[in-house]
Specification:
Helix 5 packs across helix 6. The longest helix is centred in the middle third of the chain and has 15 residues. The chain is globular. It has a seven-stranded mixed beta sheet, sandwiched between helices. Helices cover 24% and strands 20% of the residues. The chain is of the alpha/beta class and 303 residues long. The two termini are 29 Å apart.
């Protein structure tokens, strides 16, 4: 998976984010990350973030070229551990300064929610929410097992589960933000059109051009499938604004912010595939996706 397409973020309102509790629509223009951070700080999800400290910080770097695929890609992820929970945010390879990890260890979650690097803020909020609201049926999630297998086999199994989060009978063309060829393969197998968008541009496995301006494609698509990486680079907010205004399905496949994004269900987000660390590409054994919303899920925000 490569980085999602750059989106031009809308103007935001000055002042602190609204913190009125989960499921309450945000103030117009409040970025999603600020909105959920504000709620965390007012006790909407659990203990005071200032009372919890991050004990472990680490990065995971990966390069892959699946067997039979013409192209490969690289990933790098920042992860913070809080108790049994690991919060994560993908970054561009080589982007993080060497002292980022030492900045994080021993700091309170609240301190890291004000860190100058967005990746640290996302990973800290993700760790906090994974600790306070772990994935599972009690949180409104449906566990879907991914069988053991090669990285390509697991990628395809994940893609099949993610695509089924969309109302496929009502979809003509899907805007895919953050190109994953296995997802495109699933859409192709169902006869659905799609527009691939990614920050790096280039072409898909089928030599289709990858657009870099996702906003310009929104009106030509009737559903959006976006990577959780959009939370980390700030490009989620215009997608949310469009979904709120039009009612179009917006499904997110999230390794970045997997515990954060379900908080937006019913508030622009129609479904989330949450995949906390360790991700499917790290281990050939069985793993689990946690699916929220979608055609057979709940419509309200995850609690």
């Amino acid at each position: 998976m490569t980085a999602p397409a750059v989106l031009t973020a809308p103007a935001v309102l000055a002042g602190p984010p609204a913190a009125t509790g989960p499921g309450v629509p945000p103030s117009v223009g409040t970025p999603a990350l600020d909105l959920i951070t504000g709620r965390a700080r007012t006790g909407a999800y659990g203990p005071d973030p200032a009372s919890l400290r991050i004990a472990l910080a680490f990065t995971t770097a990966q390069a892959v070229r699946h067997a039979g695929r013409a192209r490969g890609y690289r990933n790098e992820v920042l992860s913070l551990r809080l108790g049994a929970a690991v919060g994560s945010c993908a970054v561009e390879p080589g982007e993080l300064p060497a002292d980022t990890l030492t900045d994080c260890v021993g700091a309170t979650v609240d301190e890291l929610l004000d860190h100058p690097r967005t990746a640290v803020r996302v990973a800290a909020l993700d760790a906090y929410l994974g600790h306070c609201r772990p994935h599972g049926p009690a949180a409104g999630a449906r566990p879907v097992p991914l069988p053991a297998g090669s990285s390509l086999a697991k990628s395809r199994a994940r893609a099949a589960a993610v695509v089924r989060l969309l109302p496929l009978a009502d979809v003509r063309r899907v805007l895919v933000v953050g190109v994953v060829n296995s997802l495109l393969e699933q859409l192709r197998s169902r006869g659905l059109g799609y527009v691939p968008c990614d920050l790096k541009g280039g072409v898909t496995e089928w030599d289709e051009p990858v657009r870099t301006d996702a906003l310009a494609q929104l009106d030509d698509c009737d559903a959006v499938l976006a990577s959780g990486m959009t939370l980390g680079n700030g490009s989620l907010d215009p997608l949310l604004a469009h979904a709120r205004a039009t009612g179009k399905p917006l499904a997110l496949f999230a390794q970045t912010g997997s515990a954060v994004l379900p908080r937006l269900l019913g508030d622009g987000v129609s479904a989330v595939s949450a995949e906390p660390y360790p991700f499917f590409w790290l281990d050939g054994g069985p793993s689990v996706l946690h699916l929220y919303g979608g055609r057979s899920g709940r419509g309200g925000a995850a609690r």
